Amino acid sequence: MSEVQIDAAGHAEPSFSTKLIWRTFWVLLIITVIELALAIIYYETHFLPKHFLNGLFIVGTLAKAFFIIAEFMHLKHELKAMVMTLVFPSLLFIWFVIAFLWDGNSYRDLRNRYDSHHLEQSKTPAAKKPGME
User: Fold this and answer.
1) CA-to-CA distance for 78 and 86, rounded, in angstroms?
2) Going by C-beta distance under 8 Å and a sequence separation of 6 or more, which residues neighbour residue 3?
């Protein structure tokens, strides 16, 4: 948090501590290095299951997003109601994107399964080229 200092001319100037920024930098760096190391290990050895690693990457990304938002956007020091007015619409937007991707995939599967034109094309043999009789 910044505090106010009075200079010799009587002007109030905020004092700025870089301690929190450096702490956030080191946390972000450690999370990123761990993610990178896990990706290199997976690429070389396939030691861990891919879905497990994807889960770890999502958790790491969310942790980094939290630290960035909390420190650099100063939401850590805001009232809870202010934070919720920003977080709740963001969560709704994420739900919106996932729902539309899910619905689009369902539509594609149903179209491929029940579309008569698609079924006709898949059942008939490939057409012969002209002049190749």
Assistant:
1) 11
2) 14, 15
Report the number of distinct structural domains present in the chain: 2
CA angle 110, 115, 119 (to 5 degrees): 110
What residue numbers bound the domain in which 106 lies?
Answer: 79-121
Q: What is the pLDDT of residues 100-111, one digit of tens each?
A: 988 988 888 888
**pTM (2 decimals)?**
0.56
Considering the domain boundaries, does residue 7 fall inside one? Answer: yes
DSSP-derived secondary structure for 24-79: HHHHHHHHHHHHHHHHHHHHHH--S-HHHHHHHHHHHHHHHHHHIIIIIS-GGGS-
Verify that 64 and 99 share a domain, yes or no: no
Q: How far apart are CA 17 and CA 26, in angstroms?
A: 16
Considering the domain architecture, whether residues 53 and 100 belong to the same structural domain is answered as no
